Request: fold
Amino acid sequence: MSKLRLLFIKEGPAAYISHLDLLRTVQRAFPRTELDIKHSNGYHPHPIISIVLPLPVGQSSQCELLDFEVTQDTDGSGIADKLNEGMPEGLHVLSCYEAKRPVRELAALKAEVTFEYDNGVPEDAAAKLQELLSRQEIIIQKRTKRKDMADVDIAPMILRTDWRTGEGALVGTVLVQAQNPGLNPQLLEKAVERYAPELTPDFTRVRRLELLDAEGKIFR
Amino acid sequence: MDKKLERILPRVQKPARYTGGEYNAVKKDPAQVDTRVAFCFPDTYEIGMSNLGMRILYGVMNNMDGVWCQRVFAPWGDMEEEMRRAHMPLFALESGEPITDFDIVAFSVGYEMAFTSILNMLDLAGIPLHSADRTGLTPLVIAGGTAMYNPEPIADFIDIVSLGEGEDVTVELIELHRKARKEGWSKAEFLHRAAQVPGLYVPSLYDVEYNPDGTVKAITPRDGAPGVVRKRIVQDMDKSYYPAKTIVPSTEIVQDRVTLELFRGCIRGCRFCQAGYVYRPVRNRSEDLCVRYGVEACNDSGYQEVTLSSLSTSDYPQLTELCDDLEEFCQARHVNLSLPSLRADNFSMGLMQRLAKGRKSGLTFAPEAGTQRLRDVINKNVTQEELLASCRTAFAGGYNAVKLYFMLGLPTETDEDVLGIADLAARVMHAWRESASNKQRGVRITVSTSWFVPKPHTAFQWEPQISKEEYERRVKLLREAITTKTVTYNWHDPDTSFLEAVLARGDRRMCKVLETAWRKGAKLDAWEAYFSLDRWLEAFEECGLDPHFYANRQREKDEVMPWSMISSGVTEEYLWRELQQAKAGVTTPDCRTRCNACGANHMVGGTCHV
Reply:
């Protein structure tokens, strides 16, 4: 028996595949590997597959991780190529390897956040944004699991942000807490709406760049 | 990805329906393409992608050099709203390009309730609705599918209707269109030539005259078009294309599994069933080929469920052999076999054991009518004893849920027949008590009734649909007669069935009604969320037509049916004979027992290989 981990890209049309649909899509590609996925015990056994940090629909990522267990002993070599034969456009497995590091060691997420402005980037926007997102307290309204809105201070979850002005857009490289609790970088838009409405973008795009541990080293 | 689309997608439900890029979606180099076909399904992605015909023709067209067939589905309301606001025309999933200037826009029309979505999709694409307003060769708007056996309600909007199975005629039509463009024919010249191709019906080449009472007086072809257009079929199922390598949607669809088509046609001859008549004659696919396709399709798609598809799968001659030959593969790959529906007269323990090894939940039988008398009228040759025996087998084998489907309003139905449904359900309940292997789990018996819709090209095409009041009275009668708690009774919404009955046997004057209803907002009428009968009734009123004339009127033998220029291969004389047999309560044996001379045998050289 082996515990394996996939590192994969999810982008383009595949960015709109929901979490459950992604699990289904990956499961359908598995028979190509001739690996036997371990199933849960129970009346309706289900395959043991989990996505380490589910990606919100619409965001893209070059660092997605998926854990699964197989009944065979394998180090995962050759699996990525076989899986890629059955993948939709925008899903691409980069590697498959033994899952050695526990998920709890995943601490931070580096992402690129693009704020698009159709009528040009407002003046001094990068600097203003930098200041705003470095405050000690940033309260936004967030939908809770019970579906009602609650005030949340996201300041402690923002570890670092760097903003530069691009063509018709502000591009930020942001480092946020990944879990317990994690911050969806998309929510930075909410902070802007509340504290600097004149900087509210016409569209926000998020791409995950890297997963990091508490020391700032790459988490695999 | 298109920038407009990227901005819209975060705001709509299930955005994966609109992105394309699925595994096996066909991409072609535009420089190598001279014919772009927008293959449109006038319903949502989840419904359209579940359609086997769509997958077959997608493969057939994309196997042609220079042809790029791309899929288009009806957007859900939220998406449509966003697209209209962003001035984004309807686009094809493969290239993301607007279909406005595609060479051919082809609709697959399986049911009447999709008619308004055709108009809506043309409008979203910025294509003129009326055939007469499209003066050039492109875009050519064509339609096919089961609902096109009476295309008259959409005749004004469609340039060419393709009748029957499209594997061959679609290729011929595309080649002809390519030639027309190359040689610079006028649209009139092209339509004239297309009308000479067997299976292609060109509505604009037929003049329809009406009697003072509103019935059709005469249908007259012009410009050398044939008086009767006969459907096309695939002669040999072993040589016809099967989509073993086909698109695997990245989002869940309705039929999310491999569909393995075992045969076309049906030996039974139920008198209400349009599919049973129009898909004749029966043509089987060889068992070994079915095994091979099943394995190939599972291996390529990764699906773990295969549905053994046909109009009546338990009538496939080598069904148990097929299940046995697939067993080893299925076991190794954890693949389940399923059947779409079962006949209650040949459901065996052996078959049951071969199906759904893991989960035994429910079985579905369709006795259609509550008494033997009425089952004989409709030629559903299933006896009560056969049904009960099948249920006993199922209960003994561990099943604890049975669904029973019936129709209310069948010709000659009496209250006794309606109450017979409740009686039958009670007997099924009793069968469970007698034979259930595990009584602790209880039993669920579901009785569902729909409202009978008479369809063209069936023995009941002359018959009226009963009135809504009468249907509702019979529903109430049945509801009150079902007293057992374990029997759940569901009945179909009357409004949609009424409109279906109106549209199914509509004539060309219905085009105006359709357009009016669409302008009032009708679209996706098969969905409760969108359907409104009031909108339609207003449209009829404004157009000066009476919907009851179409739904509830008894037709005479000599009446010219609006679809009488279209032949399914089954003769009208045969249908009339079947109607008389129905009224006499005389059954007709299945095609394997005896040839009943319906006429469809002439499509396969005189003798059917049933």
Observations:
- The radius of gyration of chain B is 24 Å.
- The mean pLDDT of chain B is 95.
